[in-house]
Each structure stands twice: as C-alpha cells, then as structure tokens.
Amino acid sequence: MAPVDIDAWVWWLIGAAALGIPLVLTAMPELGMLAVGAVAASVAAALGAGTVLQVVVFALVSVALIAVVRPIAARHRAQRPELTTGVEALKGKSAVVVERVDGSGGRIKLAGEIWSARSLDSDLAYETGQQVDVVEIDGATAIVM
C-alpha cells in the first residue's frame, strides 16, 4: 500500500485544532489567535501558496491578532463596570428627609422607598423635607449628609 500524501492545508487545520484544544482547557486567548493564524495559513495553502508564504501568513495573522486584540481585552478587563446595581447604585443619590435624621437615626425617602437613615456627622440633624445625599449604606441604614 502506497503512503498517502496529506495536503499542506490539512496540516494547517490539524495545527489549528491542536491549538484550539489547549485554548479550551487553559482559557489562554493567545492560543486562539494562533489557531486563527493557522486557519489563515490553511486558506493560503488551499489557494496554492508555497510553504514560505504559508508560514508568513501564519506569522502575520497571529502577530497582528495578538498585537491588536490583547491591548483591547486588557483595557476592557481594567475598566470598572459602568452600571452599578444594588446598594452601590444608591451611593451618591439624593433623598428627602421624611422624619428628622440625626446621629441616632431617622427616615428618608430614597429611590421611591422609605429607608432608615442616620447622619454621617452625629452633631448634624436634618429636618423633614430637607434634601440629603447618601454617602454610604450600612446594612439597611443609609448614612447621609
């Protein structure tokens, strides 16, 4: 039986799959970018490009993806989420005093709900109808100033 010659484009696809498996196991996006480079080299091979051109296509596509995608991903990873939820979203909001608020307690209307509140500065008191700002949420109590 004669040996079977496998076309170069098939080898590149095998290489792409071989890079894809550790990508899934390790979650290293660089391996995915190398796999895309191997697929691009496979396309070049299928179109009849020589071995040197296939390697150049692989290298150029892989390096370009790593150079462009990694900084974008790092920037997105470093950004704080723009949408805050829960009690974090209440910090900095304005509220209206519905029952005198001082260092020992009181009540405010915050985001349409009645909250227990206390003054950040225990010497200050806020009267009914006065507008206050929420500085912090401590359990179920809003700390205001």
UniProtKB/TrEMBL annotation:
Keywords associated with the record? Membrane, Transmembrane, Transmembrane helix
The answer to keyword Membrane applying to this record is: yes
Q: Which Pfam families match?
A: NfeD
Q: Where are the transmembrane segments?
A: 6-24, 55-73
Question: Main localisation, per the record?
Answer: membrane
The compartments listed are: Membrane
Q: Key word Nucleotide-binding present in the record? A: no
Ranges for domain NfeD-like C-terminal: 87-144
**How is this protein positioned relative to the membrane?**
Multi-pass membrane protein
The protein here is known as NfeD family protein
From which source organism is this entry? Answer: Streptomyces huasconensis
Q: What is the lineage of its organism?
A: Bacteria, Bacillati, Actinomycetota, Actinomycetes, Kitasatosporales
